[in-house]
Structures are given as structure tokens and as C-alpha cells.
Amino acid sequence: MKTTRQPLYQRFAEQLRASLENGVLRPGDRLSSVRQAALQHGLSITTVVRAYELLESGGLIESHPQSGYFVRARFAAAVMPAAPEEPGRSMPLPVSAEVDVSRHVLATLKSIHQHDAVPLGSPYPDPLLFPAHRISQYHGSVLRSGGPLGVLDDLPPGHPELIRQIVRRHVETGLSISPDDVVVTVGATEAINLCLQAVAKAGDTIAVESPTFYAMLHAIERLGMRAIEVPTDPRLGMDIAALGKIMQSQPVAACMVMPNFQNPLGFEMPDENKRQLVELGARYNMPIIENGVYNELYFGNAHPSVLKAYDKRGMVLYCSSFSKSLTSAYRIGWTLPGRYRVQVEKLKFLNTLSTSSLPQRAIAAYLTAGGYDRHLRRVRRTLQQRCDIMSAFVGRFFPAGTRITRPSGGYVLWIELPSAIDSMALYRQALAEGITIAPGRLFSTSDAYRSFIRLNYSYNWTPQIEQALRRLSELAAGMLD
Q1: pLDDT single digits (tens) 51-92
Q2: Residues 6+ apart with CB under 8 A from 63
Q3: Which CATH fold topology does 131-372 show?
Q4: What CATH number should be reported for the domain whose range is 97-127+377-478?
Q5: Looking at residue 3, what is its pLDDT?
Q6: Which regions of the chain carry the CATH code 1.10.10.10?
Q7: Which helix (H) or strand (E) holds 473?
Q8: Is the dihedral of CA 298, 299, 305, 307 positive or negative?
Q9: By CB distance 3.0 to 4.6 Å, which of 82, 135, 397, 414 could disulfide with 264?
Q10: The HTH gntR-type domain covers which part of the protein (predicted)?
């Protein structure tokens, strides 16, 4: 059983909350300045700021420009509410369905960059989290080196040094593979499409989580396949027993899952469940396509295990990319397709010939130089803090009955609003006011999630973000009148 050590800023926030609740700090009292608190408690300024922001988002304290932080005058009525309940386990019908989500997703993604909209609906993390300057330096260095950069220079499986770095990273996180296992792709999206194309054909049924990340549904739709949604728990992931019953009653060509920090639910599937899922696939000779694109963004103390680690027969096709952890500007991904490697490499060649050489070499140079782990530690701390702040804010301001997930990693919250609220209507109203969200309709083949939304918490907590969330809560509440 994994244990997660509470972050320092959360522990400090709990100490301050206790002082508020036992009357040591009273309404109207001024808190120590950030610098004073850091000196008094032996903390960094960043830790104190994070703790104050967390308490502020929960309504316990408030900041006064040029004056500092104060206990709210109405503290007695503003005590941090109990964390909202999580959404319940999904219960989709066990029937396969055609997939038609691309037009909704395309419209949503286009809207994110229109008129400087607040990107709460963005599928990408805040680009300011990434070391863009350093990577651009390596990009320039590769260009100045004068080496070959033609289309044919890095044919599949990809640039050797990048592959070596990918293998090294996997070995460091507990997965024993060799360079011969890797095929470099144009992001995780191409990896998923190639793997699905290698194991199934048009008309086949693919099992997915419910709700599921729409990139999975895109791949199924693109290839003319059908999807069957499997009941999924917001803490434990896909219900393996339910998947087994489905497979007993109808043919399932493959299963597509995101076992770690699933988008949109944010769970980390327990290790035993991962093992059982791989064993079920092997029993029925069913390939499993594993999307591990968020694996580096964990909140705990240890890197999560992957399905691929339990795979004894090469039935798990692992897919990932650097787009969510290092840079979204360079669409560089990879797959470990197991026994399907030859088919995937051939399909890669037929689909896109090769992956752009310059981005491969720039990322390889960055990884070789070191610093990736240091970057990831900073990103994880930041994302966990921003998750806590947005979760507290939603719990405080959104309509009664709102439920939210408790992510173990990644950067998205899945929110269940009262059933009377139509998330597509909320999406349109919010967009008219320059706020984007991802409505639940994007994450299923049915309308089962009409009252759900997904929010991106990776962006810095600014007055603009806070104002947008407050307005979103008002729009939601207005739908209940």
C-alpha cells in the first residue's frame, strides 16, 4: 500500500486552520507577512504563499492589497466546508455504439483560443510550466550542428538517441525494456491511432472507460469502429468484473484505458487491479492499449506502475508523449507495442513516413543534459497546489449538490453539477463571456454526462481565473432558478 506524505504547504495550512478554529486567530486579525511567517516557521516563501492561497480559496482568510492577509470578518460562517462528495461509479449500458464526438471536440478546442478566453476547458497544461527556453536552446544547437535533418534521416522507429533516453527513463521508473521495443510517433495521438489500427479493424468493438478521454474516442471514430463503455469508479478505475461479463456476452477486439491519472476522472488504478486487467486481456487474447501520457504528473511519492509491467505476452501496447510533461510545442510521442511492434512500425511508415527529426533531437539533447527530474518535481508540486486551490474554490462557491473528483495526479477536475444543469448550455453561456469549459458530452458516446464538466487547474491562480470560476458558479446557479 502506497503512503503519500502530505506536502509542507498543506501541513502549514492545517496548522493555521487549527489556530482559526480554536480562537487563537480571530476575525479581523492580521496574519504574519509572508516573509515573517517563512522566518518564524523555517519555511520557504513559496510554501507560505501556497498555504495562504489555499486558505484564501477556502474562504478562511482574505488578502488586502498592500496590507497583507487577514482572517475573514465573517470567519464563523466561512469555515472551510467539508470536501464535496465524489461522483459515483458510472453505470453505462453494456451495448456498443457508433462514435461521433469529433465535431463537438473540434468546436470546443477552437473556442479555447478565441478572444483570449479563460482556458478552463483546455486539454493541455499551462505552457508556462514548461522549460521552453532551454528546449529552444537545444533546438538551435541541433540546427547549428549541421547534422542531417531530412525526412529520411530518422525513419521508424525514430532517432536512436531519443529512443535511448526513452528506454532509460522507463528503466528508471521500473519498466525493463530495450531500444528494440520503441517506436517514436507524432505525439501520443498518433501512437494510439497506430496501435488501434494494428489490433482491430472497422466495425470492431473497443472497450473504454466511462467517462473516457476523447482522444480515445477520436481514434475509434476515425477508424470506423464501435465503442462499448465499461463502468468506471472515480477512485479504482475500470470495473474489471464488468468488463469480463461484457467479454463473455459479445466480442471485444481491444480495450483502451488510461490507468494512471485518467482524463477526466484523475484516479490511479490500484496495482492489483492493473494486474487483474492484464490477466483478463491475456485470458481472452484481447490487446490492451495503455495511454500513459500523464504518468509523470503524479502527486504521491513514487512513480505509478504501468499495465505494461504486468504484461507477459506482449498484449499491452503502451503509448505516451512529452506533450503533457515537457513541451506541447513539439509533438513527440512513442509506443511500446509488444508483439505488434512490426505492424505498428509498418503503419507508422505508411501513415506519416517519419517523425520530424529536429524536435526528436532537441528533446533528446535536453534529456541527455539532465534536469528533467528537477523540472518534473517542480511541476508536480505546482499542480498539486493548484488542484487543492481550485477544488476548495469549487466546493465553496458552486451550487449545493456539486460533486468533484479528487485527482491523484494530472491537471483536470471532473465535476458533477446538479442534474438540472445542462453542461452544453453552460458551456455556451460561459463561452459568450470569454470562459471555456469542457462539457461532459465530449467524454462519452451517449449523453450520460450532460450535467458534468471538466476543468483544467494547471494555470496560475490569478484574479482572472478566480473571477471566471466565480462567474461560472453564478451561471450554473442561474440554471437552477
Answers
A1: 888 888 777 888 877 678 888 765 444 444 556 788 988 888
A2: 52, 56, 69, 70
A3: Aspartate Aminotransferase; domain 2 (3.40.640)
A4: 3.90.1150.10
A5: 46
A6: 8-77
A7: helix 463-478
A8: negative
A9: 414
A10: 6-74
Residue 396: CA atoms inside 13 Å, Cβ hemisphere, count?
20
Distance in angstroms (rounded) separating the CA atoms of residues 351 and 151: 14
Which is more confidently placed, 259 or 173?
Answer: 259
Query: What is the pLDDT averaged over residues 97-116?
Result: 73
Most confident by average pLDDT, 99-113, 140-154, 257-271:
257-271
* DSSP string over 368-421: HHS-HHHHHHHHHHHHHHHHHHHHHHHHHHSPTT-EE---SBSSEEEEEPPTT-
- The architecture (CATH level 2) of 8-77 comes to Orthogonal Bundle (1.10)
pTM of the model: 0.84
pLDDT-based confidence at 113, cuts 50/70/90?
Answer: low
Give CA separation, 184 vs 149, 228, 336, 361, 369, in Å.
16, 29, 9, 12, 20
Residue ranges of the chain assigned to CATH 3.90.1150.10:
97-127+377-478
* pLDDT for the residue 56: 81
